[in-house]
Structure prediction request, 70 residues.
Amino acid sequence: MGNDNWPVCQACGVGSLLPLSDFGGQGAPIHYKAWVCSKPECGFNIKIRNGDVYLNEPIASGAAHSPRPR
Ligand SMILES: [Zn+2]
Prediction:
């Protein structure tokens, strides 16, 4: 806590949108490539790839061993 600089998630109004960075094909850092809600239950995310904006893509959390209950 203590970081109020991130915009509030407009999807749930509770979480914060956290900027995520990635690395390009040449190893060049791509800052703020994606924004993801900090609230796991929300899962709102937006990212840009090749100039196109992608909204609410499924998140590959790497936790395939813990399926989320529905
Ligand atoms: Zn949210």
Q: What stands out?
A: Residues 9, 11-12, 15, 37, 39, 42, 44 surround zinc ion (CB under 6 Å). The mean pLDDT is 84. The radius of gyration is 13 Å.
